[in-house]
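In response to reviewer comment 3 from the previous cycle, which asked for concrete evidence that the modeling workflow produces usable outputs, we include below a single protein chain processed end to end. The sequence was submitted unchanged, and the resulting structure tokens are shown without manual editing.
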Amino acid sequence: MTEPPAHNDVLVVGGGPAGAAAAYWLARHGHSVTIIEKKSYPRDKSCGDALTPRAVKHLADMGLAESLSRFHRNDGLRLTGVGRSVEIPWPSHPVFAQHGYVVRRTELDGIVALNAVAAGATLLQGHEAIRPVVERGFVRGAVVQSESGEAFELRARYVIVADGANSRFGRSLGTFRTRDWPYATAIRTYWESPRHDEPWIESGLNLKDRNGNTLPGYGWVFPVGDGTVNVGVGLLSTYRDFKTVNTSHLLDAYAHQIADSWGIAPEQPTSSATSGRIPMGGSVGPKAGPTYLVVGDAAGSVNPFNGEGIDYAYETGRMAAEVLHRALESHDASALQQYPRMLDDEYGQYFKVGRLFANVIGRPALMRELTRVVMHNRTLLEWVVRIASNLLRPDELGPAELAYKAAAQIVRFAPNA
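The workflow returned the following structure tokens.
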């Protein structure tokens, strides 16, 4: 382990996608940056194995295209529901790739973090930032504790909060989740499957509990290409009985639902299930203070349409790095206030519509009707994939207008639900 500088330009709390991306771009700008990662690589996370074209683009921008090429590539999304199955290729786009990958988080996060180290960042694994160092109201670093229990201070001109969805460090600075905005819970594990190398990731729109009741959420199957598939379920908090649902039972029910088609043995997963709560739609704030920025899941930067967070983690990490680069170059901390405006310009309206959509489909009757309608209309399905994946081209209608129209259609089809 490289000894961290006594004083850094930037201290990054968390070595996941957002923190590692921010550290990479800061190091590329020539700034001294240290990443504090509580665990040691390889370490697992509950979501994020499937990389969409947005994520692929940002990983390629960080010089990792060749590293990705050894993993299992996919061509698009297969949607299943109401007895139908439709394969939709990733849409063409002038900026993003037209393919995705499936990479286990046990491998991916270490690759991105070590890439930041290769660019010049310092990485402290097995160290936890237990509390901020605050002087006269300004965050000036963190008290860091090693696995052995030794505690010491690391100081920096600026701090990036990137310690994930529960963000203990962020909460100590006063961040909070907007309680009436939707969030999700997700749980997943792996099974051996003869279809492990298929070129499609699958999304099951008819998520049902053990009693066959439709729930507002979806199941997924991500072929990993190594003999296994990643199988999981996500459930929205907008469902009236959300808190009564046992997600382990829900995953078991979905595994039995897909067992025959994927050739899995539901009682024999290859590892224990992992789960997590996912704040969505930019629901955590404030996202900037006088000397700190909040990125990725710690800021709730997760797509409310589909629960994707890893691509937005890479993007917000890069945005934060650009803002801090300006602040460091100009010796003007007021540059940090550009960051919330950048997030709002990029995601504000899209996330707002996604939150509306999550509220609409929180009613099972509407979810059933939506599934019935879209699964019988390939053109509509293609638009759903473009909108939900945030892959609309600049020459197409804005995602906000389209999503509002889709939500209005759902309500019209089931006005009494």
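DSSP finds eleven helices and 19 strands in the chain. We consider this sufficient to address the reviewer's concern, and the full set will be provided in the supplementary archive.
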